[in-house]
Amino acid sequence: MSAVNRRVQELDTIAAVLPLERRDELAELLTDQDVETLRHLVNEGMGDNTLRALTSDLAYLQAWSLAATHVSLPWPAPEALLLKFVAHHLWQPQQRESDLDHGMPADVERSLRDQGFLRTTGPHAPDTVRRRLATWSTLTKWRGMSGHFSSPALKSAIRLAVRATPRPRKRKNAKAVTGDVLARMLATCNTDRLPDLRDRAILMVAFASGGRRRSEIAALRTEQLTVEAPVAVDNGPPLPSLAVHLGRTKTSGADQDEIVYLTGRPVEALNTWLAAARIDKGSVFRAIDRWGNVSRRAIDPKAVNDIVKLRARKAGLDPTEFSAHGLRSGYLTEAANRGIPLPEAMEQSRHRSVQQASDYYNSATRRSGRAARLV
């Protein structure tokens, strides 16, 4: 059996945890040691999304190294190669007009584009370059080696390159799905048809549970739901309550079981969907075919994004301005608008960074504060 075929089979053994659409191509790019590292990380229980990102970055780095130096990535990488990577990805378009050797060489660019690794026509975003260098550094450490990723020369090169080609910082999506926007989207789920019941439950659960990531919503299973005692309220019947055991999340430790709570309308919407779809075990949110048959498999995370855009369009909103991440940013923005203390909102959103979470609060405060109403 050839080395490539062996790597294909080894990649197949982890495909259930790490879906790879280009396994044959990756088997050509990645080395035996690369594949073994991925298998080790799967066995260590690293999160699926983190593994996908690491694999994507590793494949890109290997493809770039082969195109730029005609050899696979060396471990550890010499400082000169790291500087070459920065020079190939962070460059000035104006200087390229007068110096064709500036930036990524044409043959390297053509090779990466032909393989589908390169889609941009200009310099890369600084955050993308930093992330791929961080992946490179992490993989180097996992191999028991030390690299030059903290060298003054590399830090200086990145700083100067970013300063020379400034880019405005962009939010993940243009608009947050705040309470008023969510209400308009929910109003489009106004029938007893299964797609409407499912989409209503997805929107309400994702928002009310602290703005859950689309991967967490797509992966949600009935085994993660625990019925809690009803919540007493003034002048009304008790509200149904559920605990959602998220397990390990993007920001939690390996042994942590993150728990958030749903109360009232989101619980009712979820129970209505589960009863109508006759789901009593397994994946909570599933695909529905044109004949109304509910799949046994969970929906794809991308489907959550598509649902948000579909409901935005049906509500008369511009779907290009909204995404699934808007439910996460919208939750914190709405919490700020309603005066909910930041620590209380973070308990539900499970944000670890006060700085990141407080950005939404600061924006809401600035919009409604006196400083914005001096005239």
- Tell me the span between the first and last alpha carbons: 77 Å
Structural class: mainly alpha
What is the percentage of strand-forming residues? 5-15%
| Number of β-strand runs | 5
What would CATH call the homologous superfamily of the largest domain? Intergrase catalytic core
* Overall average pLDDT: 82
Which geometry do the CA atoms define?
Answer: globular
How many structural domains can be distinguished in the coordinates? 2
Largest sheet: 3 strands, antiparallel
The low-pLDDT segments are: none
Number of helical segments with 4 or more residues: 17
CATH secondary-structure class of the largest domain: Mainly Alpha
Rg of Cα set: 24 Å
What fold name stands as the CATH topology of the largest domain? hpI Integrase, Chain A
- For the largest sheet, list the strands in their spatial order: 1-2-3
Report the helical percentage. Answer: 40-55%
Q: State the order of secondary-structure elements, H for helix, E for strand.
A: HHHHHHHHHHHHEEEHEEHHHH
- Judging by the overall fold, what is the CATH architecture of the largest domain? Orthogonal Bundle
Could you describe the 3D structure shown?
With 375 residues, the chain is mostly helical. The chain folds into two domains: 3-164, no CATH class; 179-373, Intergrase catalytic core (hpI Integrase, Chain A), CATH 1.10.443. The chain contains 17 helices and five strands. It has helices spanning 3-13, 23-29, 32-43, 48-69, 79-89, 93-98, 106-114, 126-142, 152-164, 179-186, 194-208, 214-218, 265-277, 301-314, 325-337, 342-349, 354-368, and strands at residues 225-231, 239-247, 258-263, 286-288, 294-298. The strands form two sheets. A three-stranded antiparallel sheet has the order 1-2-3. A two-stranded antiparallel ribbon has the order 4-5. The termini are far apart. The model has no long low-confidence stretch (mean pLDDT 82).
